[in-house]
Amino acid sequence: MDVQVGDILTMKKPHPCGGNQFQVLRIGMDFKIRCLTCGHEIMSPRSKVEKRIKKLQRTGEQEEG
């Protein structure tokens, strides 16, 4: 999966605060993502995050149209 820093991920399972959208801050063996609802930052293994992605939104897509 081609995930880049700055992308917005909509996850299948929501964060405990109720939000299910996260911004990608760092990629590698682990992903560092930030909940867009409460601002909590999470480090999670790449395989775990990639399984839970429902939708991927590029940051540049919104600005182009």
Characteristics:
single chain; 65 residues; alpha+beta; 5-stranded antiparallel sheet; 5 strands; globular
Residue stretches low in confidence (pLDDT < 50, at least 5 long) are none
From the helix content, strand content and strand pairing, which structural class follows? alpha+beta
Strand order of the largest sheet: 4-3-2-1-5
Order of helices and strands: EEEEHEH
> What helical percentage do the residues reach?
10-25%
**In whole angstroms, how far apart are the ends?**
24 Å
Mean pLDDT equals: 89
Query: How many distinct folded domains?
Result: 1
- Strand coverage percent: 35-45%
Computed over alpha carbons, the radius of gyration is 11 Å
Instruction: Please report the total strand number as a whole number.
Output: 5
Largest sheet entry: 5 strands, antiparallel
Q: What spatial form do the alpha-carbon principal axes imply?
A: globular
Provide a count of the helices.
2
Give a verbal description of the structure.
The chain has 65 residues and is α+β, with helices and mostly antiparallel strands. The protein has a 5-stranded antiparallel sheet with strand order 4-3-2-1-5, with helices on one face. The protein is globular and about 25 Å long. The chain has one domain. Helix content is 20%, strand content 40%. The mean pLDDT is 89. The chain has helices spanning 46-52, 59-64; strands at 8-11, 21-26, 30-35, 41-45, 53-57. It has 2 helices and 5 strands, in the order E-E-E-E-H-E-H. Strand 3 and strand 4 form a beta hairpin.
